[in-house]
Amino acid sequence: MNMPHSVSKLTRPAALFLLLLVSSAPAILAQSERCGVSKDFEVQALEQIKTGTTSEVEDGLQLLKHATETCASFGDAWYYRSLFERKLGQIPKANYSLDKAKLFGSQAMDDGANPFVLAAPPRPGENKLPPLRNKWALVVGISQFNDPRLSLNFTTKDARDFAAALTDPKVGRFPPSNVHVLGETQVSTRRFREELNWLARNAEENDLVVIFVATHGTSRKDDTADVNYLVTSDTDLSSPDTLFGSSMAMVDLSDIVRTRVKARRTVILLDTCHSGGAMAATKERATGIADFAPSGGALDRLRQGVGRVILTSSQEDQFSYEGAPFQNGYFTYFLLEALRQNNGMNTVQQDFEYLKDQLPKAVAARTQASRGVRLKADASTASSPQSTTQVPGLSASELGGDIVLGAPPANP
C-alpha cells in the first residue's frame, strides 16, 4: 500500500507509534464511553442519599460497585465507594477503596466531599434563622454550547439582569464584590464547579447564599427519575453516555449545598430552560436531549438542612418560555418584578406567590415559541393542556420561606 508522502518520511519508530495510536483509537473511545457510564452510576448512587438510611446506603453502594467495575480508573467512584462502605461498617473494604482513590486521583476526595454530612444541620429547638451577617451570590447564564443547536437567546441576559437587581442598593443590597456572574456566552463545567467552591469557601453560617442558574436541564428518565443534569457549554452530545458524563450533575450542586455551604440561608433559583416540559420537535430529533425540571428526589436532597429554598421555573411536564414581550425568560422577568416589590424586602415565599400569580397569565397570552430542546418528538405532548401554561415550583426546608433576599447585611 502506498503511503502519503508526509507519512513515508516518518522514521520506523514514529511510524509504528502512529500505527499503534490509530489502531488503539476505538479502544480509547470505548474506555471513554465506559467511564461516562461509570459517572452516571456514581451520580445515581449519590442521588440515593437523602436522609442516610441503611437501605439508601446499601442501594448506593451497589451502584458504586457497578461504577468501579465499569471504569476501574474512576477515582471519584472509588472514593465515594469507600465512604459508603465505611458508613456500613465495612472498614477493610473501605480502606481498600480509599487506596484505589488515592492511586487514580479523586477530585471529590480533594474537595472533602461527603454526602452523609450536612453543613447546616437542624438544631434542637431552632425556630428562627440567625441574624444576617453577609450576602453572596453566584449567577450563571449559559447561552452558547459546543453544539450550536442548543443555543439559547436570553439566558446570558437573564443572568446579567438578575445580578444587576441583586447589587442594586434599593433592591438586593448585595455587595458587588460578593456577586460572581458567569454571564459570558460560554461557561464550562469546570468553571461552574470552581465558582460553587468559591461560595462554599467564603459563605459563613450567618450569611445568605443565592445561586441562580439559567441553562438546559436534563433527566435520565430511563434510569431513574431522581437523576438530573445541567448542560454546560462544553457538554459532549456525541452519545447519551458522554452527554450525562460531561454535564454538571444536579447531585454535584446539591452536595455542595448540602455538605459544604454553611450559610443557614441558601436560595437556589433554577431557570433551566426548560426546567420542565416539551420543546421544539425539530430540535429534539437533531440533538437527542430533553429538558426537565429537577425531580422530586433532587429537590429533597437540596432542601436538607436549615434555610434551604429552591424555586424552579416550571413543572416537569410544562414549557418554559422566553422572549417577547419581555426580552428575558418569562420566569426571570417576573422574578425580577417580584424582587423589586416592596424595595426588595418581601420574603421568598411572597416572591413565589407573585410568580405563581403572574407567570401563568403571561404564558397564556404569549405569542412566541418556547425555548429549548427535548429528547423525543412527541405530538401528543404538544397538544397537551399542560403545554399551555407555566407554573413555578417552590421547595423549602422547614425554616427558609421567610428569607428576604433584599435584607441589608449587618457586616458586609
Strand order, main sheet: write it out. 2-1-3-7-8-11
Question: Fraction of residues in helices?
Answer: 40-55%
Number of strands: 11
CATH domain topology of the largest domain: Rossmann fold
Count of the separate structural domains: 2
- Residue fraction in strands: 5-15%
SSE sequence, one letter per element: HHHHHHEHEHEEEHEHEHHEEEHHHE
Give the helix tally.
Answer: 15
Distance between termini? Answer: 73 Å
Sheet with the most strands?
A: 6 strands, mixed
Structural class: alpha/beta
Low-confidence stretches: 1-29, 274-288, 368-386
Q: What would you say the CATH architecture of the largest domain is?
A: 3-Layer(aba) Sandwich
CATH class of the largest domain: Alpha Beta
Shape: globular
Look at the structure and give the mean pLDDT.
79
Give the radius of gyration: 23 Å
